[in-house]
Every structure is written in structure tokens, then in C-alpha cells.
Amino acid sequence: MPQDYEGVVTIWKQKYSDKISSYTPYKVTQQFERFAKLFAPGDSYFYILNFHDLSLDYISESVERIVDIAHSEVSISDLLAPALPEELKKLERKEILIDHFFNTYLSMEELTSYKAVHCYRIKDKNDNLRTMLLQTMVLTQDDMGNIQHVLTIHSDVSHLKIMSTDNVSFIHLNNGTSYYNLNPNKPFKAQITNPTETLLYDALTKREREVVNYLAKGYNADNIAEQLFLSIHTVRTHKKNILRKTKCSNVAELVAQCLMSGHIL
């Protein structure tokens, strides 16, 4: 494995693998696979990582859009390989923060209630630069409560023009307290005394949410009007009201905040 990856892998080995005494494979059902695909739209792939030995118990065929390797032969090192060199140190710091959140801050009972979300940049097999959204959540724990299997989804969000790839968000999956845009360079506890309030997405009407979802897909006002059977004027009014309610200065900021807060994708 290339030396550049050792920082990330060492964290996984020390914080997860060394605590798990035996290998237990994760059995993927057709129902689980269909469910996972709902959260991996567009150019996405997903996998189940077994922390016992950092093997992949499952990986979707769509990974072949990113790496020039048959999905059945892909390893975790192959998934790290496309990351830009400057992203690897960032990924290492993010993993330290993620480890602290899941293994120190949360109780064993809370581990499956959160997902970690962040972005990073890669070059795919065709040398195209992409920004990938990474979402990871705990699937199982061993008898001691140690994290054993995680589901991770990587989605190409390059079209959203997200500029920052540094921060990490921890999203509660059942409307509990979430923590947004945490800086991996700062101590976790120093950032949680006043967790960032969720984006005012919940204050939007059903129609406004539909408009946001189409904006996230890169649709313009004409396209959205056609999809929702509205006039262009009505769509533009919705857009103006959405930006006002969410206090975002432009669509790129709006979509980025919705994305990182788990409201879309």
C-alpha cells in the first residue's frame, strides 16, 4: 500500500481493527442493496467495510466508473488511490475527528443513530477531477459494542460546485441533535457547546423543497418549470423566497448547505 495512505489506514487499524477479535462477514440481501441504491444516486458507489481486517464485504459494481479495476477485485487501498495527494492529510484529520465522535463522544447505543458526512476530491480512472460526497454509517457492532461493519456511500457532487472540502458533519438519522461543518483541526468538544442549528429547510414548503431538489440536480428555472408544471415566473419567485428563508446568498451556497446537512442526497 502506498505510503501516502498509511495515516488513514493506521487510524482504522488502531481505532477499530485492533479491538475486533474475529472476522464476521456481513450478509447483503437484495432488499439491502436496493435500499442502499436509494442513497447513491447518479455517479455513486457504495461498500460495506469490515473493520476486523479492512476487507470489503460488499462493493457496488458502479465503483468501476471511478477505478479501472473490476469491482470484485477492488480493495480499500484502491478506493483511497484516486484521492488527490493534498486530500490525504485532510482525510486523515477527518478520520481522527470521526473516530472521536463515534468512539468517545457517543454511547454504544447511539452509534447506529448517526452518519458522518464530508467531501473530498479525486481524479477518476479517466483523469477527470471530481468532488465526492462521502456518507458513512455504522451497520453492526460486536458483543463488546465495537464498530464492526460500516456502510459508506460516495457520490459525485461536482456539479454542485462545492468549494470547501474540509469540514465534517454528523447527522442524526432520527431527528436528534446534529452537528454541522465541524473543523477537523479543532478539538471536537470545543465545537459542540453550541451545535449549529439545522438549515431552515424544515421551514420551506413542500413545493419549495421540490425546487431545492431540482436545483441540486443542476436544473435551471426553465427545466424546473417544465418538471413541476409551473410558470418560469413562479419558479423564480420560489427560488427568491427559498434564498431569503435560508439566508443563503446564492444557489450554490443553498445546495451545499442542504447537502452537508443531510437534507438532500
Automatic annotation (TrEMBL):
Pfam families, alphabetized: GerE
InterPro entries: Sig_transdc_resp-reg_C-effctor, Tscrpt_reg_LuxR_C, WH-like_DNA-bd_sf
A Gene Ontology biological process term: regulation of DNA-templated transcription
Domain HTH luxR-type as annotated: residue spans: 197-262
Protein keywords: DNA-binding, Transcription, Transcription regulation
Top-level taxon of the source organism: Bacteria
A single GO molecular function term of this UniProt record: DNA binding
Protein name: Helix-turn-helix transcriptional regulator
Species this protein is from: Aequorivita vitellina
Lineage: Bacteria, Pseudomonadati, Bacteroidota, Flavobacteriia, Flavobacteriales
